[in-house]
Amino acid sequence: MTSITSSAYRCTPSPLHAIFLAGAIPLFLGALLSDITYFRTFQIQWSNFASWLIVGGLVFSGFALLFALANLFQAKRKAGRPVVYLLLLLASWVLGLINAFEHAKDAFAIMPTGLVLSVIVTLLAIVAAWTGLTNLRSEDVK
């Protein structure tokens, strides 16, 4: 008699976790597009839009980070993709917070650092969501 034991990490996040995880991407992407528009036009309102979008992205990714941490504690196996996923989320959140502090400066002082940070945070959020929304368990062992 053979039994199949699966990895302890859930294969997909819960629906609320997925909403927070996927919801951070358009907010960080909107901040990036606002920064690009500000870089081209120098209209200060685009900098304000980016600041608020970054805050929204931090809220969503912060909740996704809490869900990922709770899922990691529930997993019996602590190595592999769940840890990478958590570290990607943590990196995007920390760099997003630094980006929010950068955007708190005067509008003319945020370029080009704010734009570069927005690119990095957006890419990290996309990779974290890709990692979090794909199959996170290892292959079944017979």
Any overview of this molecule?
It holds the Pfam family DUF2231. This is Membrane protein. InterPro entries: DUF2231_TM, UCP029509. It comes from Pseudomonas taetrolens. The chain crosses the membrane at residues 16-37, 49-70, 82-101, 107-133. The chain is mainly alpha-helical and 142 residues long. The chain has one domain (15-133). It is 72% helix and 0% strand. It has four helices and no strands. It has helices at 15-41, 44-74, 81-103, 113-133. Helix 1 packs antiparallel against helix 4 (113-133) and helix 2 (44-74) runs antiparallel to helix 3 (81-103).
The ordered string of helix (H) and strand (E) elements is HHHH
Q: First CA to last CA: what distance?
A: 10 Å
Cα radius of gyration in angstroms: 18 Å
Largest sheet: number of strands, sense, barrel closure: none
Q: Helix amount, in percent?
A: over 70%
Query: Which structural category do the helix and sheet elements fall into?
Result: mainly alpha
What's the domain count?
1
Mean pLDDT: 86
Low-pLDDT stretches are 1-10, 136-142
Total number of helices: 4
How many β-strands, per DSSP?
0
Share of β-strand residues: under 5%
Q: Shape, please? A: elongated
Notable characteristics:
142 residues; mainly alpha; disordered N terminus; transmembrane helix; transmembrane; membrane; UCP029509
